[in-house]
From TrEMBL:
Record-linked Gene3D superfamilies: Methylthiotransferase, N-terminal domain (3.40.50.12160), tm_1862 like domain (3.80.30.20)
Name of this chain's protein: Mitochondrial tRNA methylthiotransferase CDK5RAP1
Cited NCBIfam families: MiaB/RimO family radical SAM methylthiotransferase
Gene name of the encoded protein: Cdk5rap1
Organism: Rhinopomastus cyanomelas (Common scimitarbill)
Reactions the enzyme catalyzes: N(6)-dimethylallyladenosine(37) in tRNA + (sulfur carrier)-SH + AH2 + 2 S-adenosyl-L-methionine = 2-methylsulfanyl-N(6)-dimethylallyladenosine(37) in tRNA + (sulfur carrier)-H + 5'-deoxyadenosine + L-methionine + A + S-adenosyl-L-homocysteine + 2 H(+)
Highest taxon of the lineage: Eukaryota
């Protein structure tokens, strides 16, 4: 027996579903350097499974009998979600699993028998938020123990995988730790915790997609929903912790995705967002006949750290099939990688042709400096990125763009920063997500680069990026004043009970009066718009984040597209 197998067996841990040796870190397919790129040492796939056996999953001692399982309908679970929309989807998956095991859900913290936090590790601030929350829960747990009402606390998701030992050993507050690929094990882990022992499973899988689990949707009003189409990431950007907390990239079978979208359509959901760390590298290999397709080319001027992946049904096929399910359901997707929009533009053309695929793209740039982009291992230059932006705008007239940017990455000079400022001005994004760099352990940057930009400089640069972004976004949004926008009503405005809010095709928030209006179908009489309705709004003013307007009429997605 190989030593690493014996270690896993001794710890009571199952082997990964596809054999990956923690000793060698060699998966079925090695990551390769791109053309002309020298092979260098650095973090590899061995980090995915290293130390997975510590701390071990706890089993009941011999003779103690099976661990107690909560009786159906008696144990109440309280779930809190932090971080990205992938974590929102993970929360729905975890709840679907627990619901089938007899747990009930509560929205009141004081009623809970189990509190589960679905966590994020992408930045230090996100992790600090969880530590602060745990300090608050420590007092609650102490009060419950005094009243002889046990309370179990669990940490799920990316932070669970990254800091498993520290979480379990710090003040002995947390009872259960489950990584992103271990949600199926939650009922067993909680049963072990009921016996007074800590329990953990943070093993990463090479094939887990939860394809057979239909998440219990928790979005307010049931108007919108998120559908996970893939998990993990293979891009290995030097700043990013995701490949080490969520594992290798793997895609759900298209059939299971279509089944979930049809279910949501039957439930009346009017907008679905397809989720993944790199959605446009989607590759369904679930059927033998799917594995014969050739690998598509990358966008011109882009490259990867791995060899082209042949075989599989691709994202363009999935997008085509999803858009045909319900002509009255909007389709969005996030996040794509700029490299995976091939020159033949099949994905872009489908977006342009289908009235129910939103004319909005997220194109994460991260930096406007080619030198910094190389250090980030993004696989493109500033010039290649701008060429792609121009190509997108030519193919999809009127498209709105959003992006991600990092201020103060390793080695970033003032000149590099000013190139990012100029990129913001040149592209003029409608929506932006900007953050100061936060170094993460295990990443290539942690092993190879120096976090040498002072915190005060990062803060100053981030403030400048935010100022420039808001200026340019305001100009982009002001161009819509006087136009008529199709808006999906989401519900009341947070700031005024007399106003409603929704989002237009470009995913920009629109505020308008809650008033009666006519229906474009000519059914007679006045109607008041409800969540899930499509309405036409004439834009009267704009800011960097929102549009304001007046209601014209209630309509449908198909009718609005036909009259456009």
């Amino acid at each position: 027996m190989l030593p690493w197998r014996g270690a896993l067996r001794a710890a009571g841990l199952p082997r990964p579903r596809s054999a990956v040796s923690p000793r060698t870190g060699i998966p079925p397919r090695r990551l390769r350097c791109g053309p002309g790129e020298a092979r260098v040492a650095g973090p590899g796939l061995r980090h995915f499974l290293r130390e997975c056996a510590a701390p071990p999953r706890v089993e009941p001692p011999p003779g103690a009998g099976p661990a107690p399982t909560p009786a159906p309908g008696t144990a109440k679970v309280y779930l809190e979600t932090y971080g990205c929309q992938m974590n929102v989807n993970d929360t729905e998956i975890a709840w679907a699993i627990l619901q089938k095991s007899g747990y009930t859900r509560t929205k009141k913290l004081e009623e809970a028998d189990v509190i589960l936090l679905v966590t994020c590790s992408v930045r230090e601030k996100a992790e600090q938020t969880i530590w602060n929350r745990l300090r608050h829960l420590k007092a609650l747990k102490a009060r419950r123990q005094q009243a002889r009402l046990p309370l179990r606390i669990g940490i799920l998701g990316c932070m669970a995988e990254r800091l498993k030992e520290e979480i379990l050993h710090k003040e002995k507050l947390v009872d259960v730790v489950a990584g992103p690929d271990a949600y199926r094990d939650l009922p067993r882990l909680l049963a072990v915790a009921e016996s007074g022992q800590q329990a953990a499973n943070v093993l990463l899988s090479l094939d887990e997609t939860y394809a057979d689990i239909l998440p219990v949707q928790t979005s307010a009003g049931g108007t919108t929903a998120f559908v996970s189409i893939m998990r993990g990431c293979d891009n290995m950007c030097s700043y990013c912790i995701v490949p080490f907390t969520r594992g290798r990239e793997r895609s759900r079978p298209i059939a299971s995705i279509l089944q979930e979208v049809r279910m949501l359509s039957d439930q009346g959901v009017k907008e679905v967002t397809l989720l993944g760390q790199n959605v446009n590298s989607f590759r369904d290999l679930s059927e033998v006949q799917f594995q014969l397709a050739a690998a598509p080319g990358l966008s011109c001027g882009f490259h990867t750290v791995y060899r082209p992946k042949a075989g599989g049904l691709r994202f363009a096929h999935l997008l085509d099939q999803v858009s045909r399910i319900d002509p009255e359901m909007r389709i969005r997707f996030t996040s794509p990688h700029p490299k995976d929009f091939p020159d033949e533009a099949s994905v872009l053309q489908i977006i342009q042709e289908r009235h129910n695929i939103c004319k909005q793209l997220h194109l994460p740039a991260q930096s406007g400096s080619s030198r910094v982009l190389e250090a980030m291992r993004r696989g493109y230059t500033r010039e290649a990125y701008l060429d792609l932006v121009h190509h997108v705008r030519e193919t999809i007239p009127g498209v709105t763009l959003s992006s991600d940017f990092i201020a103060g990455f390793c080695g970033e000079t003032e000149e590099d920063h000013q190139q990012t400022v100029s990129l913001l001005r040149e592209v003029r994004y409608n929506v932006g997500f900007l953050f100061a760099y936060s170094m993460r352990e295990k990443t290539r940057a942690f092993h190879r680069l120096q976090d040498d930009v002072p915190a005060d400089v990062k803060k100053k640069r981030l403030e400048e990026l935010n100022t420039v972004f808001r200026e340019e976004a305001a100009k982009a949004n002001e161009a819509m004043v006087g136009q008529t926008q199709l808006v999906l009503v989401e519900g009341p405005s947070k700031r005024s009970a007399s106003e409603l809010c929704g989002r237009n095709d470009g995913n920009i928030k629109v505020i308008f009066p809650d008033a009666e209006l006519e229906d474009a179908a000519g059914c007679g009489g006045l109607v008041r718009p409800q969540p899930g309705d499509y309405v036409l709004v004439k834009v009267t003013s704009a800011s960097s984040q929102t549009l304001r307007g007046v209601l014209l009429t209630r309509t449908s997605l198909s009718r609005a597209a036909a009259s456009h």
